[in-house]
Specification:
tt1808, chain A, globular, alpha+beta, about 240 residues, 6-stranded mixed β-sheet, 7 helices
């Protein structure tokens, strides 16, 4: 019987593979309520590829519960449809769904939807394909007004300069649209027909009553009216000039 001895190279390769496996195992799991730095959070998040959503808010890990249909995924899709139609008619802006946003060293968020200026805005795409800095508008779907979207997250967005923040509180049938003014949020009031109009994105109109009732056709019809406004036409021209620079 011939006995083959392992060469030093084979031993080194096995040791390296074992060390690599052990290093992966040693990365702790993300747990709700963990206090972490941004680097620690990102390392643990990357080590959990099956985790769909986690956020770091003021240095604390938040991991949402499973997503309900009527209380989250359906209204979420209505918002995406509304923002998507605005983007289709407004070259120079883009929307995103559940994208990771690095706001500051203690806050990495994953908003339900966002809208940003591609050129000359307050956010940039990083080399590793994440968003850094505050998008101009963020939307969150919350079950109630008790959700952290209206407390810790609101303060984080305000401090980091998110110009407009919309929170749709499903169980209370309420839509709050906050606008940043002199460093603090104030709630936007609808006009007489019940339309909320974005100051940062001219032509972005929202029929709140129709949205709450799930009447997406009416929501989009009123948005079309905003897209035909003189303010939106002027905004598109402004964006085109910025893109040519």
């Amino acid at each position: 019987m011939t006995i083959r001895m392992a060469t030093p190279k084979v031993i080194r390769n096995k040791s390296l593979r074992r060390a690599q496996r052990e290093s992966v195992v040693r990365v702790p799991r993300l747990e709700n309520g963990d206090r972490l730095t941004r680097a620690e959070f990102e390392t643990r998040y990357r080590a959990m590829p099956n985790l769909n959503k986690a956020e770091l808010i003021e240095g604390t890990v938040h991991m949402p519960s499973p997503v309900h249909h009527s209380h989250h995924s359906k209204p979420h899709q209505l918002i995406n449809t509304w923002l998507g139609m605005y983007c289709a008619s407004t070259p120079g802006v883009e929307t995103a769904d559940n994208g990771t946003v690095r706001l500051d060293p203690e806050n990495i968020v994953q908003p339900d939807a966002s809208l940003r200026l591609i050129e000359g805005g307050t956010s940039q795409i990083t080399p590793d394909d994440f968003l850094s800095g505050a998008p101009e508008l963020i939307v969150e779907i919350a079950s109630t007004s008790a959700a952290y979207d209206l407390y810790d997250k609101r303060h984080v967005y305000q401090r980091n300069g998110v110009r407009e923040y919309i929170v749709w509180q499903i169980l209370e049938a309420r839509v709050s649209w906050f606008v940043l003014a002199e460093g603090a949020y104030r709630e936007l009031a609808p006009d007489a027909p019940g339309i909320l109009r974005s100051p940062a994105f001219p032509g972005l109109w929202l029929n709140v009553n129709a949205l709450r009732d799930g009447q997406i056709a009416k929501v989009l019809n009123d948005l079309r009216r905003g897209l035909k406004s003189k303010a939106h036409t002027a905004f598109v021209k402004q964006l085109a000039r910025a893109a040519r620079r």
